[in-house]
């Protein structure tokens, strides 16, 4: 596959093309054809894409090419009987994202036998003057007969009794869903489920909601602008800072849980998740900080334990016990103010390493960054407006922006990002050249697609620069990138080239363990082999387990029915939590008809 360039298509597009008329003409044919797989694929180019999220498959699928799409439609259209197609005329536009590339993007709504759905199509021009779809995206929006309870308000006066009528604590009855982890992912899903009338209990090991942010280093902030990070039902106020400080976000999460009356047990840890033999699918043993224990019997357990499960990863380096200084992981770091007058070494060159090193410079602390491998770097100033271009101040509403993001299949998105990275690299040319001159190792990401492939494959290996890169160039953050660490010495580190680095403090900004490893600790060993990879993309370019049940579609999937994961940054959690909530609600109401 490649981009549908005008040269490849043998066509031209004029900027005054009547996008609305073209979209309407194509859409009439599409709506009429959506009962006949052959008629539908005749409206697509031969190498087109169709991405479906729950609408026709109860799963996440990306289909490529005429034959694959035709088979999918032939199998599924009769089951879901789509109808009531309407075109969103207000959202039809001609897009020319890069030179030599053009398409008409349009939104539509429709119904199926199970619910309400939406879609996006992108039409490209052909040599004969006609237009066909290159990408079609369809997704389930809601279940028929089970709308979100977002417009139902209690008009009764409840003065003085609100605390008595808060949600139940589940001491005497069972929740429907247990969510392990009360960070943003777990809370967002709890809110989604509540609006669908599903009782969920969040189990959070910290003593206060937001502590997973509150206990991290004080200079931490979200790396996306706030208009990308709104939480469902509770958007940030318009005066919110563009990049949310971590401590501020911690308080916002606490307020979110309280304002939406979410059920959260704090100072409680999920100890085990075991198959249940008495009716429900799973038994969750919860141990409270004061020693109390509860056994919760539920049909659904969601692991919202963070992208990496919260367990620090530290490289195995010889002679660690021989070092006379202080060793810590970035998860233990709070502020460079703790190290004034000392020499600090930060091992790693990703976002945390950059953030901690910049914090050291700001506090006048002598700091050296030890880079172990190349990373992709883009500046926040030039990279974010392009990388997150659909999320802009004054732009589309957040739900529309989310759908646009989803409507690009990840395999196709790679080709777009290759164009994008070239633009960003040109804008960042001076910064990148300065880094190379001082020995900082750079790359352009997997397949030259910048951060996109690195996000999906390992959620690391890239850095959005907020000022640390210039400090590296200026020598204010010292750099050691010319050799691997061999072992510790009493005064610091010895490298394989026999060079040494004396230091008082070594901070490992080396990430966290795989999320799959973290959740396996909660499950019995006989189920471990059935757990699919959690992060990373499958052969279709869809996330392996995030948003899905852990067992996947394989032969062992039934063993893990009712076990889910939700993770990622705020926007990913906002997006995928909706689909998890819809699936759980469908299970509970008996309308889930099986994955395709």
Round the Cα radius of gyration to an integer and report it: 26 Å
Q: Which of globular, elongated, flat, extended, rod-shaped describes the shape?
A: globular
Report on the biggest sheet.
Answer: 6 strands, mixed
| Number of E-state strands | 24
- Number of helices, where a helix is a run of at least 4 consecutive DSSP H or I residues: 16
Could you characterize the architecture of this molecule?
The chain is of the alpha/beta class and 596 residues long. The chain contains 16 helices and 24 strands. Strands 2-1-6-5-4-3 form a 6-stranded mixed beta sheet, sandwiched between helices. The model has no long low-confidence stretch (mean pLDDT 93).
List the helices and strands and how they pair.
Blueprint: H1 6-9, H2 19-33, H3 37-41, E1 44-53, E2 60-64, H4 66-80, E3 83-95, E4 103-111, E5 115-125, E6 131-143, E7 177-180, H5 184-195, E8 200-203, H6 211-214, H7 246-259, E9 264-265, E10 268-275, E11 282-288, E12 293-298, E13 300-303, E14 326-329, E15 343-347, H8 351-362, E16 366-370, E17 376-379, H9 380-387, H10 398-407, H11 410-427, H12 429-437, H13 451-458, E18 462-465, H14 468-473, E19 478-480, E20 485-489, E21 492-495, E22 500-502, E23 505-508, H15 515-520, E24 563-565, H16 570-589
Parallel strand pairs: 1-6, 7-8, 7-13, 8-9, 13-24, 14-23, 15-16, 15-23, 16-19, 17-18
Antiparallel strand pairs: 1-2, 3-4, 4-5, 5-6, 10-11, 11-12, 20-21, 21-22
């Amino acid at each position: 596959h490649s981009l549908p360039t005008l040269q490849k298509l043998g066509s031209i597009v004029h900027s005054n093309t009547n996008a609305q008329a073209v979209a309407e003409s194509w859409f009439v044919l599409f709506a009429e054809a959506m009962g006949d797989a052959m008629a539908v694929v005749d409206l697509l180019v031969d190498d087109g894409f169709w991405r479906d999220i729950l609408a026709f498959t109860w799963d996440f699928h990306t289909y490529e090419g005429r034959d694959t799409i035709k088979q999918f439609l032939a199998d599924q259209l009769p089951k879901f009987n789509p109808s009531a197609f309407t075109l969103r005329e207000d959202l039809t536009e001609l897009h020319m994202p890069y030179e030599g590339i053009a398409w008409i993007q349009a939104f539509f709504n429709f119904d199926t036998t199970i619910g309400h759905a939406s879609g996006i199509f992108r039409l490209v021009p052909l040599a004969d003057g006609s237009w066909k779809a290159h990408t079609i995206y369809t997704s389930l929006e809601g279940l028929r007969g089970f709308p979100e309870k977002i417009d139902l308000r209690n008009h009764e006066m409840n003065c003085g009794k609100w605390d008595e009528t808060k949600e139940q604590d589940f001491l005497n009855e069972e929740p429907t869903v247990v969510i392990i982890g009360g960070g943003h992912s777990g809370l967002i899903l709890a809110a989604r489920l509540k609006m669908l009338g599903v009782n969920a209990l969040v189990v959070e090991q910290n003593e206060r909601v937001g502590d997973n942010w509150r206990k991290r280093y004080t200079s931490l902030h979200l790396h996306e602008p706030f208009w990308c990070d709104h939480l469902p039902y509770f958007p940030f106020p318009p005066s919110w800072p563009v990049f949310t400080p971590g401590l501020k976000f911690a308080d916002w999460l606490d307020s979110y849980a309280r304002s939406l009356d979410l059920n959260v047990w704090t100072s409680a840890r999920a100890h085990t998740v075991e198959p249940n033999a008495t009716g429900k699918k799973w038994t969750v043993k919860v141990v409270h900080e004061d020693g109390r224990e509860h056994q919760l019997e539920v049909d659904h357990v969601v692991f919202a334990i963070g992208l990496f499960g919260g367990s620090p990863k530290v490289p195995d380096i010889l002679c660690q016990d021989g070092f006379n200084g202080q060793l810590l992981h970035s998860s233990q770091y709070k502020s460079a103010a703790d190290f004034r007058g000392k020499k600090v070494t930060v091992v790693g060159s990703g976002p945390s390493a950059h953030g901690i090193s910049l914090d050291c410079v700001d506090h006048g602390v002598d700091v050296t960054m030890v880079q172990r491998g190349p990373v992709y770097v883009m500046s926040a100033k030039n990279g974010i407006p392009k990388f997150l271009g659909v999320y802009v101040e004054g732009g589309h509403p957040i739900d529309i922006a989310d759908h646009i993001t989803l409507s690009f299949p990840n395999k196709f998105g790679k080709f777009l990002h290759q164009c994008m990275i070239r633009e960003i690299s040109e804008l960042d040319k001076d910064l990148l050249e300065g880094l190379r001159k001082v020995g900082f190792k750079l790359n352009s990401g997997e397949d030259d697609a910048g951060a996109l492939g690195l996000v999906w494959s390992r959620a690391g290996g890239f850095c959005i620069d907020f000022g640390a890169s210039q400090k590296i160039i200026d020598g204010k953050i010292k750099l050691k990138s010319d050799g691997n660490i061999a072992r510790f010495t009493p005064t610091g580190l010895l490298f394989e080239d026999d060079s040494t680095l004396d230091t008082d403090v070594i901070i490992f900004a080396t990430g966290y363990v795989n999320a799959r490893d973290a959740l396996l600790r909660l499950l019995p060993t006989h189920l471990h082999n059935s757990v699919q990879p959690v992060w990373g993309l499958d052969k279709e370019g869809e996330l392996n387990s995030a948003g899905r049940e852990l067992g996947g579609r394989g032969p062992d999937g039934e063993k893990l029915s009712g076990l889910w994961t939700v993770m990622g940054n705020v926007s990913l959690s906002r997006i995928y939590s909706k689909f998890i909530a819809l699936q759980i609600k469908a299970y509970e109401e008996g309308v889930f008809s099986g994955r395709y």
